[in-house]
Write a structure and sequence with these properties.
With 256 residues, the chain is of the alpha/beta class. Helix content is 37%, strand content 12%. The strands form 2 sheets. A 4-stranded parallel β-sheet has the order 1-2-3-4. It has a 3-stranded antiparallel β-sheet with strand order 5-6-7, with no helix packed on it. Bound molecules: iron/sulfur cluster (SF4) (2 copies).
């Protein structure tokens, strides 16, 4: 489950745990200052402190690590080094090895952001490399990034995966959130399998000439289906660094 983490208190965490949800992804959009400028409340107040405190508190109810907590840190050219502060905060709060941080690049969709502030996948690989080098020095960091054969790209083209907005409307893709034309139902009603619901799920990269000829199709499955709708490719990082990833995996196996 992906959540903004703001209401992840003891009561809600226990509902999640008892529902047998075994993983939650929480996102921070940078250090406290930048995050609060991007992820503020309706009244303008910040959300960083509360989300981070929830991450600290969860450990009291998740002592056996029944629910895997991953922390996505969104980066672009304006907050490139913020992950270092967040990693430091995790360490200071004894969350090392309990919360799994990773970095992801911000992309400009729906005219919500400036393309010029975003990294390309190729540019972002260098930043990921630096992140991984820092994390490798941390013995609690469990990272083994061996490419896996996948059947779909993301939650959007996956059966029984839903994005739910604030009034309960359902979507396949989180980039469509709030665009009611793209909603195929509401969580309060019976969920119908409609053509709109199936539209993303039927996404088939083997029908695309470039993807079909691409050697990494089985570990990419055509990239983001939302991006493909506008005839762009969002190629997987493995297209650029598969060799290095495989070498890293061998080194990891040898050492562990
Ligand atoms: S890396 Fe690019 S071309 Fe290759 S399968 Fe993925 S999206 Fe298609
Ligand atoms: S289709 Fe793209 S934007 Fe939508 S959820 Fe999947 S990866 Fe994210």
């Amino acid at each position: 489950m992906v959540s903004n983490g703001y209401l992840l208190n003891e009561k809600n965490f226990n509902i999640i745990k008892n529902s047998k949800i075994n993983g939650i992804q929480i996102t921070l959009d940078g250090n406290e200052n930048i995050h609060n400028k991007r992820r503020f409340l309706k009244n303008g107040g910040g959300t960083f402190k509360k989300i981070f405190q929830n991450l600290v508190d969860i450990q009291k109810y998740n002592s056996k690590n029944e629910v895997n907590i991953s922390l996505r840190i969104n980066l672009d050219k304006t907050n490139l080094n913020d992950y270092k502060e967040i990693i430091k905060l995790l360490k200071e709060n004894n969350l090392d090895g309990l919360i799994n941080p990773y970095i992801a690049r911000v992309q400009s969709h729906n005219d919500c952001y400036k393309d010029s502030d975003c990294f390309t996948e190729e540019e972002f690989i260098k930043i990921k490399k630096e992140f991984e080098q820092i994390m490798e020095q941390n013995k609690n960091y469990k990272k083994f990034d061996y490419p896996k054969r996948i059947n779909n790209f993301c939650g959007c083209d996956f059966y029984n995966s839903f994005v739910i907005d604030a009034d309960g409307s359902l979507y396949n893709c989180w980039n469509d959130l709030g665009n009611k034309e793209m909603s195929f139902g509401n969580i309060k009603d019976k969920i119908e399998i409609t053509p709109k619901y199936l539209n993303y799920i039927m996404n088939d990269p083997t029908q695309d000439k470039s993807c079909c000829e691409c050697k990494i199709l089985p570990i990419c499955m055509g990239g983001c289906p939302f991006t493909r709708k506008s005839n762009k490719y969002n190629c997987n990082e493995y297209k650029y660094n598969l060799n290095q990833k495989l070498i890293n995996s061998v080194i990891y196996l040898k050492n562990n």
